[in-house]
Amino acid sequence: MSLNTEQVQADLYFLSRDRLYEREKPYTLRFSPHVDIKQSNISREKHSVIIHNMRSLIDNMSFDHCGFGVMPIRSAMNYEDFANDAKIRSTYLDEITKELKGRLGAPHVFITDYTTSHETRWKRWSVLSTGKRPRHFYEGRGK
Question: Mind listing the pLDDT tens digit for each residue in 13-43?
């Protein structure tokens, strides 16, 4: 197949269809369990797929038709701000809430969780990989 400039071919790994998962959820521990448990029961298989640039298709995508939508959002946040939880909560989540209300015509929007891929934030949360409960993990989440 000939690819155009809006496409790229890549190998992606997907969870294998394994009868084990009918009785046991797939898992990977990010720490050494030090007991008689495997660190992972994941079985993956590689698939070669064509990835399409969706930027030219955004106008044809809608939540009602696709189950998701793409919303360009202007934010007061800088890249570095995404390492700051307080700034995310006080600025970005409010911006997202306002945009979703307007786009969906929703009277209420509740953001229950969020994830960023900012390097600094990842380093802060990497303490979860030790298997020990960090003190800051439950802060601000209610009990």
Answer: 999 999 999 999 999 988 888 888 899 999 9
Token pair of 46 as six digits: 């590689």
Residue 141 identity = R
The CA distance from 32 to 39, in Å, is: 7
Among 142, 88, 135, 95, residue whose Cα is nearest residue 115: 88
Question: Closest by alpha carbon to 138, among 28, 128, 117?
Answer: 128
What lies within 8 Å, CB to CB, of 93 at 6+ separation is 111, 114
Please check whether residue 88 is in contact with residue 81, taking contact to mean a CB–CB distance below 8 angstroms: yes
Which segments in the chain show pLDDT lower than 50?
120-129, 134-143
C-beta neighbour count of 92 within 10 angstroms: 20
d(CA 18, CA 33): 23
